Protein 1
Amino acid sequence: MAKDLKIHFFTIVLNGMPFIEKHIERFSKISPAWHWHIIEGVADLKNDTSWSIANGGEIDSSFHKDGLSIDGTSEYINSLKEKYPTQISIYRKLKGEFWNGKKEMVNAPLPFIIEESLLWQIDVDEFWSTTQMNNAYQLFINNPNKFSAFYWCEYFVGRDIVISTRGGYANNPAFEWERTWRFLPHFRWASHEPPTLVEKTFSGEIKVVRNRGIFSHQETEANGLVFRHLAYVDENQLRFKEKYYGYKDAISDWGRLQANKAFPTKLSSYFNWVNDDTLADKTSNLGIMSMHDFFD
């Protein structure tokens, strides 16, 4: 195993403003060598996301132009490529074409990663500090037999409202949140929801990479590796999810949650797609930095 690994970040994005602008300042300060693969465009409701069709999900024409972003994301990542020509790669379909689901999007960069490395999924609304990225990297360097890491996250459902429980919605340890992998060039994605990296053995058998050895939630949390997921902090996010995923009344229900005064509260009382006992609470009650302080 290599003593040093380059980090290959990857992000799939459509209309990622203003979140996408906040990542490069952290990447540029980390110790390891890095490369950021940005896959832009509309993912058709196929494969991983086909479940949303039954909910009434659809690709609304108001969200894109010729299959790409309309909020300045395209122009921004083009400017990033000019500033970091050897560290930024952009992947897009031909004009007007959609990606064949998110699985095709996440697989797009893999043929171009030709050395053992650390592969890191960074969704556009997920944030890690520079220290956290350095520490996670060091965990993999120090443990060459580990191939995957799971993490807890601070999952925001408002600018100052965050999920306060674990084991249910948005912090289910059975599959959330696997975000970093030791990558070898023959690995490929079998799915994106949840992310499942696999390898084909010499005998033709397909094996899940995480089974080679994982860092558990407990191990990563002990190293300060709990990331921030700003999933529902802006009305534009709700507008997209209401259409694309078929989350009925998402905007109005989210508005009711923001106006609520009694916390903690059951998230299922507001989000009809949540069907467990997950609780949400104010960041001030939990000692967590609000989005106002973190992002503005």
Note: The radius of gyration is 19 Å.
Protein 2
Amino acid sequence: MAKFLAWFYGGAMTTNPGPPRSVATAQRLNDAIKRLRARLRSESGHHAIGLTTTQLAVLGSVVREGPVTAARLASLEHVSPQSIAQSLAVLKAAGLIHGEPDARDGRRKLMSPDPSATELIGTLLAGRASFLSRAIDHVVAPDELGELEKAVELLERLAAADLGDGGI
């Protein structure tokens, strides 16, 4: 039976095999991404703005995609239409976005950024890029830059992965 279990699980049985390597790597990656995101928010001045991370993400999408529908924003941000509606209400009240009827379909509203929103997002992104550039220059050796570029490519592929299972 032990030989069968070893074969079934793909290797020799141990008393405490621990989690599969991909699970452990996934947890380390998740932890590293959370720490890096928190650091980027801190370095960019995000906390002083008074908007939540979700609201800023939605605002960034409006700046990048606008004019854009709420349904498209919900899809881009992987959140419910109700969540998008809440964020849009806050952003409208702050004067950062405005909605106009879609010329092709008057039932839909298109969200567009106020120029101040574009400037705000640009400032935040510049702060993040500045921190990352300085950190790379300080921490990554010149002969490691190729490895970093490969890691970025892998992260982009992970972010774009379509597993066909609807996610978690």
Note: Confidence is low (pLDDT under 50) at residues 4-8.
Protein 3
Amino acid sequence: MISLGSLFRREPAPLLGIDISSSSVKLVELGRDKSGRLVVERCAIETLERGWVNEGNIENFDEVAGALRRLVHKCSTRTKNVALALPSSAVITKKITLPGGMTEQELEVQVESEANQYIPFSLDEVSLDFCVIGPNKNAPEEVDVLLAASRREKVQDRQALAEAAGLKAVIVDIESYAARLAAGRLIKALPGKSEDALVALFEIGALTTSMQVIRNDDSLYERDQAFGGAQLTQLIVRQYGFSQEEAESKKRNGELPEDYTSTILRPFVQSMAQELSRALQFFFTSTPYNRVDHILLAGGSAPLPGLPEAVTQQTGFSCSVANPFEGMEIGSAVRLKKMAREAPSYLTACGLAMRRFLQ
């Protein structure tokens, strides 16, 4: 039987979007005002020590649960329902085509039968869900269905983490899908961009940078590369003799020595721009495409001074930093200055919080 109705389930009740990465836990809660405009009710970050979460796996459960409890307490929210996400590497997705006109129950039976062809382990070991996308373009009497499956223990880890923090996981999404949902608003607002614009979205994490190329809400290409903001922290540690914690804190708060910009930051920004350009070249050489219309930068290192300009110089394509809260009202509980500084880090958490309003 279908064992998880949450990978694509839509929940209209108040909802927390919680993104668990290798370096932090991020929380976003969204509402709507009377005009229907999105409102940022709450957003906050709690840092994690290195190794607590590794490649999406929760290695130190109690410590991560404790961080999540502190985060929820810090936000003073009464909302208990949460949307969490798994990394793309932990989820098998497949678009399949089925006859139209089937009932939900008939679809479930058919999806489970089809899933056997694509999942390399027993269905007893997986959490499985599906979402009807719509009529097939080439055969309108048939429907396209998106199938998603993950090892059950991966989903249960996320559910148990929520429970340990006094929360209830009602949605388990896929990180790249949540990021794409939040980025969709920003892509539509790009100046002069047509409906078929190709946008390369880079999420620059602590250890890994994820890239996806988006066109009309679909992902044409995804790739992860092993570089991120933690490398900048390591350079600071080596240059100035700070501890890891000191270096990270001083980097976040802008408290580094005067020569930091010229000695460390500028060379690192150039190096990162080269890495992003290299990732784009992989896309060009493995697909029919040879250009993108725009590059969006998200993640903790996206706001590094001079990075968008360096990326444009390296690639020749326009580039900007993603603020997922752009165009939203900001609630009174949000610390505006801190939120503005950290906004690009919240892209995936914002996409998860937006699931509240999907009908």
Note: The chain has a mean pLDDT of 89.
